[in-house]
Amino acid sequence: MAHVAVAHPNIALAKYWGKRDRGRNVPAVPSLSVTLGGMTTTTRAEVADVDSLVVNQRPQSGRPVERASAMLDRLWREAGRDGPRPHAAIVSTNDFPTAAGLASSASAFAALAVAGDALLGTALGRERLSCLARQISASAGRSLFGGFVELPAGDAGAEHLPARPVAGVDHWDLRLVVAVTTEGEKDVGSTEGMNRTTETSPLYEAWVHSAPSIFARVKEAVLARDFDALTAPVEQSALVMHATALGADPGLVYWNGTTVEVIRAVRKLRAAGLPACFTIDAGPHVKVLVPAAYERAVTEEIGRVPGVLRTIAARPGEGARLITVAEE
User: Fold this and answer.
1) C or N: which end of the chain has fewer Cβ atoms within 10 Å?
2) pLDDT tens digits, residue range 12-47?
3) Radius of gyration of the chain measured on its C-alpha atoms
């Protein structure tokens, strides 16, 4: 019997960058994201002789398989099951660029948490699944929920730290236009980059100190549906996060030339009276947030920036969910 789940990536409007406890993936700062409908990870899991993982039709080995196995192990232990865990064959497909700063690990592990929970019969519930997914990929804890979602900072050793819904899918009719600037994978993964920043950047403590107040401003603006109030803290969160990473040794440069040009284009749009703001995760793509009524105009302008390969438009989406239980 195969179990199929879908999940969507999420983009943090108030960024998560840095861990207080690496072993449990406890965030050092609070974050707030929007789950993105229009970009989807589909994950199929079925019992097999050994654990295996295929991503976008490419068989995986080493660390990716270990992380998938660790997700299933956490489900099994959390449910208090005795005996060896059944092995699983996992097949995961993304319809958006993978490992390129578009939160593919968030949707991947959220979908695996749901599919694995069904496969193993652990019936843990969304809040516990969020805790377990967060321990593998912190942002995955947020993709268990739809709409606007927060993940609190935690103390070292914290076990129970799920993401929490802030506002539903229909709370605010926004669009997020992704300017895709490369189809390749980034050189330094988020986990490695985050650890390097924590260990070596002289700006890291300033980031940890300032991030909670930026988060509070983002949350207040989201709840009030106040786009003007949202713009400054969203952009500040992204820029301070990247400044902190640039200060690492060696410095982490996730941007490319097109990234900078899209930032400039967004600022020109805003100066011309179009409401738009940008955010950037650990990768070169720029995400442009706009009220729905301005989606077409902003997308057309962003698509004209030299170096932008294509754009992807997304709206607030649903949380991770099971879609199929198929007899083989």
Assistant:
1) C
2) 999 999 999 887 889 999 999 999 998 899 999 999
3) 19
- In this structure, what is the dihedral angle of CA atoms 232, 34, 198, 74, given to the nearest 10 degrees? 170
**Rounded to an integer, what distance in angstroms lies between the CA atom of residue 278 and that of residue 184?**
21
Q: Return d(Cα 311, Cα 316) in angstroms, integer.
A: 17
State the Cα–Cα distance between residues 126 and 123, nearest whole angstrom.
Answer: 9
Closest CA to 266 of 226, 311, 224, 225: 311
Q: What are phi and psi of 9, to 5 degrees?
A: -65, 165
Nearest to 102 by CA among 190, 14, 234, 233: 190
Residue 47: both structure tokens together = 């019992």
Which one, of 252, 247, 213, 251, lies nearest residue 233 by Cα? 213
Distance CA 29, CA 15 (A): 8
How many C-alpha atoms does 268 have within 13 Å on its Cβ side?
10
The mean pLDDT value of the chain amounts to: 94
Residues of the chain with CATH 3.30.70.890: 174-316
Q: Tell me how far the alpha carbon of residue 239 is from its chain's centroid.
A: 17
Half-sphere exposure of 95 (CA within 13 A, CB side): 14
Pairing of strands 87-94, 52-55: parallel
Give the C-alpha separation, 61 to 111, whole Å: 19
Tell me the CATH number for domain 174-316: 3.30.70.890
**Which CATH architecture describes the domain 2-170?**
2-Layer Sandwich (3.30)
Which residue, chain included where needed, has tokens 């990870």? 41
Strand partners, 289: 176, 277
For residues 284 and 238, what is the distance between their CA atoms, to the nearest angstrom? 12
SS3 287: strand
Look up the pTM and report it.
0.93
